[in-house]
Amino acid sequence: MKIGIIGAGHLGASLARLAAARGCKVMISNSGTAESLQPLAASIPCAAASAKEAARCDVVFLGIPFKNIFSMDPSLFTGRILVDANNYYPDRDGKIARLDNRQATTSELVQEHFPSATVVKAFNAILARDLDIRQIALAPKRALPMAGDDGASKMAVADLHEKFGFDVVDAGTLQDSWRFERAKPAYCIPLGRLEMESALAQAQKHVELPHGSWRKPGH
To answer: What is the dihedral of CA 91, 118, 51, 4, to 10 degrees?
Structure first.
């Protein structure tokens, strides 16, 4: 499978390393030129690409700051499975009323911006450091949540979870994906399948965990 990654920061690079280690053909891109990514790509190893080239892959991961998504050309992703691995941080992204008022989920806004792509919310509820293949091999098998409106696309992304070494828990539609957004009980905390199912069920739309609690030592 060809994996495109938009974003070459900690998350994008970690996803690229994991996908490449699991035998996927990977293209990584950012807002700069492909040439500027050559050293990183060589270290992964994967191909350095423009965002336009990465968008032609079978599955494309969005791993850039949430606010930057809406400056991207939607036509690049027509017909693609688009994995929304982003999170909304108001201090970084600016206040977004529909999210602050719980009128929409992050992935619903992403789907609105990319109407000709199929969005699946996944890989947002794990820290970049926890995508290290050595850690995945040594730790108890971890479950990650996923949500989407299209069954076939969710199946493809579920297969990637298995390929990468994770269990996956289907949390429902994009409308339900708030259950594992930032500051919810399932967000970035290592959990097995049953614990993940419980954490998703316990989530309350208007209740957030203390900021940064998911980054405590041991999490």
So the answer is: 100
